[in-house]
Structure formats: C-alpha cells, structure tokens
Specification:
Layout: E1 26-28, E2 82-88, H1 103-113, E3 117-123, H2 127-137, E4 143-145, H3 154-157, E5 162-163, H4 164-167, E6 178-179, E7 182-183, E8 186-187, E9 190-191, E10 193-198, H5 199-204, H6 214-227, E11 231-233, H7 241-244, H8 252-255, H9 260-264, H10 280-293, H11 306-314, E12 318-324, H12 328-332, E13 341-345, E14 355-360, E15 363-366, H13 373-385, H14 389-392, H15 407-413, E16 417-420, H16 431-439, H17 449-460, H18 465-483
Parallel strand pairs: 2-3, 2-4, 11-12, 14-16
Antiparallel strand pairs: 1-3, 4-15, 5-7, 6-7, 8-15, 9-14, 10-12, 10-13
Helix pairs in contact: 6-10, 10-17, 16-18
C-alpha cells in the first residue's frame, strides 16, 4: 500500500464542520423503527448512548465495484445483500431521545428500499481527530464523513465518484472534495454562516429591519442592551470552536467575489486591513471586538456555556449568536418559543448587495477497498438523493432538484445572494493549508484560539483591533512571501 499522509485538523483548508455531537463512541445496525420525522441540527455535546436493533440478519458481504453515477436509487440492485460500516460525526442521532430524525429512522426508511443491506453506524466522540487516526490505520469501514486530509490525498483514501463536470449536473457544493477534476466526496449537508437570533428580542428593542451593514448591526446590539434585559450578542467563548465561526464569512460575504477565498487571497497581502467601506475581514472582526468593548456581550466571557445558551436564545435571554444555519433547528428545539428563533445573513453589504457563503459540511467518502463497494455507493446515493437529510437538519439542497430548509428562501427573498466559494486553481489545492501552517493563523479551521484573542483584548483593553489585525497581516504576509507569488491586496 502506498504511503498515506494526513494533515492535522487544525491546519485543514476551509471547511465548515457540522457541529458534531461529542459523546461516547457508539455503534448502530440497521433499524426497524417507523419512518423519518422532523430533525434538529447536530448537538455538539450530546453523547450517544443507545444502539439500534438489527432488522436484517444477513451480513454477507457483496464484493465488487459499482459506478456511482450509474446507480438509480430504488432500481439498481434492490435485492443486494451486504453490510456497510459507516463512521459518523453525528453521535447525537444515535440517541433515541434525539429531537429529530435518528439514524435508526433513516436506516428504517432505507431498508424499505434495500431490505438486505445492513447499515452499521459508529459515532466517534472526537470525530475530527479520531477519524483521522482511523483513516491512517486503514481499517475504518466502508463510508465515512471525510475528515481534514489534504486534497492531494483524496484519491488515495476515497473512491473516485466521477468527474466534476458530471457530478455537478446532479450535486451542489462538491468543489471542496474535488481534485484534478474528479470528485471524491458528496456533502451530507451545506449551510451558511450568520446570526441565529431571537425575533422577539429584536422587536422589543424597536428593531424593525434586518441589518445589512456592520454599523447598523452594532447600533442594533446597543439598542438591545439599552431597551431589553437580553444579552445582545453571546460569544460562547468557552466552547472554543464557536470563536472560529467568525472566519466562516471570509470570502463571498466579505468581498462579493467567489474566487477570493481559495484563489486571490492566497496571493494577496494585508488581507486583514480595513478597506474603509465596511467590508473585508477587518470589519467581520470589528463586529466582535466592538460588541465586547461596548458591553454588548455577556458580563463574563469565561462563564459562557454552549448547552444552556440554546435555551437562553429560545426564551429571549440572548439576542443573537454568531453560528451557522445548522443551529436554527437546535435553538428551535431548545425551549417553548421555536417561532421566535430566526436566522440572518452576516450584516455586510458589498457594492449595494449582500452575499452569503454557502459552505459544504462534512462529505460522504467511500472506501475504494471496500468489500461492499456497491452497497456503500447505494447508501450514499440514498442519503444524498432520497433521505431529505440536509433540509431536515437546516441545510441547503445537496442535489439540483432537492429541498432546502425554508428560511433560505426568506434570505433570498430579502435580496441575499447565496453562492459557493470557487475552488482553488489546479496545482494550488493545498496552498491555503500551507499558508495557514506557515502563518499559524489557521483561517477557517475549528481552532478558535486566534479569534478568542479578540474577545480577550476587547474586554481588558490590552490591544486595539488595529494592533491585532496588523499582527495577523505580518504573519500572513510573511507566509505569502515564502510560499506564494504576490498580487495586489484585495
């Protein structure tokens, strides 16, 4: 077997990870419960504690390969027998009391079409790290959520599902798992970054329009502070990964240019400088810095709690939180006021228009060495084309004819332009990861320590925002000098 290398999760290229449930590693086999109901997004701290009763007694492997694109769900090999081992980040969905559609429910629906294929689900506690270890060991199963591997290694680890030209006729948001024109992963869902907010809190503060600029948003936070008892903006500092979510809008939202993040930025200097028009990465971090400085966040950021914050937002104790659209269903299910929970795009306007990054979440990857390759292909096909998983979990449509959660239409009706960041140009697929490693800035990873510094500095006045941005510029510029040809700053 040829050598395989893995990049650490902290240095991964831009990816918006599903806030995977962190619990004890658990397994589940093919279920026999009733069909799917409504679902909530992932609970990042839920522990999986139950297993699913097997409905199929057959575990006979059906070896061989299958052309992924040629499979027609419900028509191709419905009598196929086999077992698919599936590694997932969603340990919360292994719990019978999960407030949504469980893996047991999805498997039961799948088995109505493919009764002889058993799905053996294993949830990993610390998925980002544990999945990398399992992948490196080689004995991980048949299907997994692809962890942070460098793009050049996708062909080593995962089945080639088809050319980008062909895949893009059916699926959305596959560019992040494309290498040399071939696709190696299909997103389980796709989401957008922004603010989950309490509509009633905003109304009580006299806010009648969704803010579309940084200045308007900061004024709204001040109005919530002055006119209500709610915490205007909750940082969720202690959780760690929540601090990293501010990076997720860099790209289309901050520039209006879908080629900026993975192409132009990699050859630009001073990317954290203030362009002077309320756009750019600088003004993303300005929202966080000024909110803390102005007392529009919790009194003591060191005491925040992720789990209780869901209920607090639901019942109006919190005005908003910077997260992603995946969090809407979690907040709606966390209390008695689901209709008060809304979602808004990041308040930034570029040349009169508001743009929203559409980011693929974890993607299904299939083991090319699987002894049940055809069954693995069928499971992924069914999950992405038939299960309605993405819409159930507050996501965008994964297929061209698929369904998105309702609130995305509300954003589009309000004039927001939802787009996906364009992929890196050929030969530069790993340049962002390399620049992240060289600069130690880890833009777009789940390492929130860099952005946590903004909260700390704004709270005690130890550094100005400009001081922090200049430091980051110096680190980035040095990395660009070492690794990349340079164009004018964007």
């Amino acid at each position: 077997m040829k050598a395989k290398k893995i990049i650490t999760a902290g240095l991964a290229a831009i990816m918006t990870m599903s806030l995977a449930a962190c619990g004890s590693g658990s397994t589940a086999s093919t279920g026999s419960s009733a069909g799917s109901g409504s679902a909530a997004a992932a609970d990042s701290t839920a522990a999986a504690s139950s297993s699913v009763t097997a409905a199929s007694s057959s575990t006979t492997g059906a070896s061989g390969s299958s052309d992924f694109l040629s499979i027609e769900v419900g028509k191709t090999d419905t009598d196929l027998t086999g077992t698919v081992k599936f590694l997932t980040n969603r340990t919360d969905m292994l719990k019978d009391d999960y407030n949504g559609t469980t893996w047991k429910d999805y498997i039961a629906e799948f088995n109505k079409v493919y009764p002889n294929i058993e799905i053996d689900v294993e949830g990993l506690t610390d998925y980002a790290n544990d999945a990398l270890t399992r992948l490196q060991g080689g004995d991980w199963g048949d299907v997994m959520m692809i962890p942070a591997v460098v793009s050049a290694d996708l062909p080593t680890y995962f089945e080639d599902l088809g050319s980008s030209d062909e895949i893009s006729k059916i699926y959305n948001y596959t560019s992040g798992k494309t290498y040399n024109g071939e696709v190696y992963g299909i997103p389980i869902t796709a989401t957008t970054p922004g603010f989950v907010y309490n509509k009633k809190v905003f109304q009580d503060a006299g806010i009648t329009e969704i803010p579309t600029t940084v200045d308007d948003f900061l004024k709204d936070l001040q109005a919530i502070k002055d006119k209500t008892d709610a915490i205007p903006l909750y940082t969720n500092y202690v959780a760690g990964w929540t601090n990293a979510k501010w990076d997720d809008v860099i790209g289309i939202t901050t520039t209006g240019d879908d080629t900026y993040l993975n192409q132009k930025m990699l050859h630009s200097k001073d990317i954290f400088s203030d362009p002077g028009d309320g756009t750019g990465a600088y003004n993303v971090y300005k929202v966080l810095y000024d909110a803390v400085k102005n007392g529009c966040t919790e009194d003591d950021f060191s005491t925040t709690d992720w789990e209780s914050s869901k209920t607090k937002l639901n019942n109006g104790e919190i005005g908003c939180m910077m997260l992603g659209s995946w969090a809407v269903t979690q907040m709606q299910g966390a209390g008695d006021h689901p209709d008060d929970v809304g979602f808004m795009a990041f308040p930034m306007t570029v040349n009169g228009k508001q743009y929203v990054n559409a980011n693929a979440d974890y993607s299904f990857g299939i083991n090319p060495d699987s002894k049940n390759l055809e069954a693995a292909n069928i499971w992924v096909k069914w999950m992405t084309e038939q299960s309605n998983f993405s819409a159930n979990e507050g996501g965008l449509a994964i297929t061209k004819d698929g369904k998105s959660a309702d609130f995305y239409k509300e954003m589009e009706d309000a004039g927001c332009i939802i787009k996906e960041n364009a992929p890196a140009v050929k030969g530069e697929e790993d340049l962002l990861s390399d620049l992240n490693q060289e600069s130690e800035l880890n833009i777009g990873s789940d390492d929130g320590s860099r952005n946590a510094k903004i909260i700390e500095a704004a709270s005690d006045g130890s550094e100005s925002l400009d001081d922090i941005m200049n430091e980051w510029n110096d680190k980035w510029n040095s990395a660009v000098d070492d690794l990349s040809s340079v164009s004018s700053a964007s």
